[in-house]
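Record filed here:
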Amino acid sequence: MVKQKIDSSYTGSQIQVLEGLDPVRKRPGMYIGSTGYEGLHHLIKEIADNSIDEAIAGYATKIEVILREDGGVSVSDDGRGIPVDKLAKTGKSALETVLTVLHAGGKFGNGGYKVSSGLHGVGSSVVNALSNQLIAEVRKDHKLYRQEYAKGVPQSEVAVVGKSTKTGTTITFYPDETIFKETIEFDYKWVVNYIRHQAYLTKGVYVSVRDERTKEREAFYFEGGIQSYVKYLNVGKDVVTDDIFYVERQVEDSMVEVAVQYNETFVEIVKPFANNVLTMDGGTHLVGFRSALTRVINDYARKSGLLKEKEENLSGDDIREGLTAIILVKLPDPQFEGQTKNKLGNPEVRRYVEQVMNEYFSYYLEENPNVAKKIVGKALLAARARKAARAARDNVIRKGALDGMSLPGKLSDCSSKDPSESEIYIVEGDSAGGSAKSGRDSRTQAILPLRGKVLNVERARLDRMLGNNEIVSLIKALGVGISDQFDISGLRYHRIVIMTDADVDGSHIATLLITFLFRYMKEVVDGGYVYLAKPPLFLMRVGTKKHYAYSDEERDAIVDQLIADRRTKGVAIDETADRNKQAGITMLQRYKGLGEMDAEQLWETTMNPENRVLIQVKVEDAEKADAIFTKLMGDQVDLRKAFIQSRAKFVKVEELDI
């Protein structure tokens, strides 16, 4: 739990200045990644990270983010308050220095922070430079200090504007619309997600988000910290054991915190953090964790006789099947690879994590033999499945797939060998597959018809999955391989279009295919290569002209427009008569499936790049996607039932497909 410290010695002398601010407005992307949606929200992260650093250091217990009605954002904490005394080196107050000079902050000196999550100390000044207006308020020494800025330029000196019995900092900023041309509107859900993660990673700190625009509000407080995080990630999954392994230990000048729990799925979810920053590409802390976990479980399995003398060691993949873990290291000088901090490079951290895991996870297994037996048993089962999968995989995946040597017989490939212009339509049923094959552009469009519903891979291991003909055909056609042979560079098509009927069965088939791609070819989804085709629901004929509608609303809009057009031509319209007749519609057909369309209709409505409707499948929040797939495709019927019941009120009776 965070215990608030009192520190009156945090002064301007601890603020160290390295360089100026001029480049930020010229090249904002270098500092915040982009000037689009992600860059805009990165501003909040930069300011909030400073408050989180106060909490990590033990000086703050409450943090609040407010999305203001006037378009600004306020971030407040009850920490020490940014120093306001003058610096001899700059002749400016410490507050102004922090907000106007790059690489100026308590994260570089010896007396500010032992650990910090801020982006190399540039955060506050970058946000200031990219804001039309920024207002800094500091509660310190029983006084309330205030200073305003415009595009990084101070509009006044730091001034005492009142009294305060509390301590802390509030930064309010308004993004510059000339920089963020795409949008300056903040996304409440993004902010909630970010704040919730920070609450998990900083146990005992109270964090809240308030949206003045919609009156929404959420607050988080996790006494369990990363244990609570692991519990959250395993919601809806059958866990191997109810308890969670947890350890927090200091090694030299760093802190290592780990939480581990196994579930009955076949998916590994491990999230490594360094100073509260998610290092998506891993790094030395993840390497240390994995090597120690593999060593400790193999040692225990040998020692306890669960792994026989002649049996080979369990592999890391076997041991991590169904693993959910959070690794959080806090260190004084994190060496992140690249500006985006995706990978931790400190070599000593591997040793720290290995040391803690070797000692304390070994104790855990020794003291909980029933738990240890279940974990080893799951790994042994995974090892057997891996061997079976390897045998199955060797039978279905051959070298030379990219040259067409081992492509499935049912695939009608395109003639182009350039993946960037090639696309594959995964079509439901042979009938629709035949129409698609006849109507396609054979130079760039490949057709793969699938028969029936593919296997629900959420409930199946790789060995069983590779026994499914439809899944095997898809793996072969895409050319990226599977499991440890997966290689995104082998992708044969840069648009994978799932084309199914616009009914319940079609939606189910599409969901099964997306589940497979998300679980076993996630890089294909992350790369933006997966699309859903949107076939029309209605065909309307007016004389020799055809009109297609993709929804009930679009059908009604077309009818309205046809009636309006006839009215302008002087045709008398009877408002009480049948609307379709008044619109001049001679034939109205509702498609029940793709098989009802001939090749020409399928081309002009669903496959012609000039007028087709494709929906790109995106995974913006992997945690949320994982939870949804678990809920809808997993074994727990009650969760799925509750999900359906909670959304039943949004379904129109006339749209039900029974």
Summary: DSSP finds 21 helices and 24 strands in the chain. Residues 107-111, 397-405, 647-658 have pLDDT under 50 and may be disordered. Residues 538-590 form one domain. The chain has five domains: 12-220, 226-393, 398-535, 538-590, 627-658.
